[in-house]
């Protein structure tokens, strides 16, 4: 079962910051997951729609200027990083799972993955691009059909993993609250991997392993070394 550091080692450092990413690498994570949003001509690594929970700022991130976003404290003196800053830090040392958090992300992420392959040593096999925004994921697939896709769901779909298969995804990424053995089996019959978020307890890991899931996203990669 693959262990993927969720927003970096976000149970030990401020989520989606360079500190969380560096700590995940230090802990030996084979993969890191992060979220990207587009604002003022840049891809920012940030999960929430609004700034209040994770920073000292206010408002909707995508409405803000670059100068304002760069001025914010994202915890312990960390800034909200750009995707390129995170890519530069990782430099091909592990897989990178990039979640597209909404519109206007597919094209710039496609461009930066190409640039990172050329300049930072990333390989094609080190990318997984995912989204709950399935039209945006389909747009990304048209731009970079050679890269793996993760189809995200926060519920138990009526047709199980059919939607992920229709998207041409490599993996079905499901909430731990909704996954069951039938969904896992259906995904595997369709040739899909099953990755589950967010798993921080060993007992949940063991339950999921018994179902045959292929990987988990965790805020505490140190617990699963």
From TrEMBL:
Domain of life of the source: Bacteria
Listed under GO biological process in this entry are: lipid metabolic process
Q: Name one Pfam family in it.
A: GDPD
Which residue windows are transmembrane per the record?
none
Instruction: Supply the PROSITE patterns for this chain.
Output: GP_PDE
Database matches in PANTHER family? GLYCEROPHOSPHODIESTER PHOSPHODIESTERASE, CYTOPLASMIC (PTHR46211:SF1), GLYCEROPHOSPHORYL DIESTER PHOSPHODIESTERASE (PTHR46211)
Q: What is this protein called?
A: Glycerophosphodiester phosphodiesterase
Source species, please?
Aeromonas lusitana
């Amino acid at each position: 079962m693959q262990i993927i550091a969720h927003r970096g080692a976000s149970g030990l450092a401020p989520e989606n910051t360079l500190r969380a990413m560096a700590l995940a690498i230090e802990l030996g994570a084979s993969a890191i997951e992060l979220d990207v949003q587009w604002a003022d001509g840049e891809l920012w690594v940030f999960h929430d729609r609004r700034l209040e929970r994770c920073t000292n700022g206010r408002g909707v991130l995508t409405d803000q200027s670059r100068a304002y976003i760069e001025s914010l404290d994202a915890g312990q003196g960390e800034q909200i990083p750009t995707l390129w800053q995170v890519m530069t830090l990782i430099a091909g040392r592990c897989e990178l799972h990039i979640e597209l958090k909404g519109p206007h992300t597919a094209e710039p992420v496609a461009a930066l993955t190409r640039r990172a392959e050329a300049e930072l040593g990333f390989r094609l096999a080190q990318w997984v691009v995912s989204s709950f925004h399935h039209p945006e994921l389909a747009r990304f697939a048209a731009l970079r059909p050679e890269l793996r896709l993760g189809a995200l769901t926060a519920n138990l779909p009526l047709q199980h993993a059919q939607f992920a298969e229709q998207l041409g995804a490599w993996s079905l990424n499901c909430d731990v609250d909704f996954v069951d053995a039938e969904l896992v089996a259906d995904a595997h019959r369709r040739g899909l991997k099953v990755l589950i978020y967010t798993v921080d307890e060993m007992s949940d890991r063991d339950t999921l392993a018994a179902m045959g899931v292929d990987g988990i996203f965790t805020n505490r990669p140190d617990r699963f070394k």
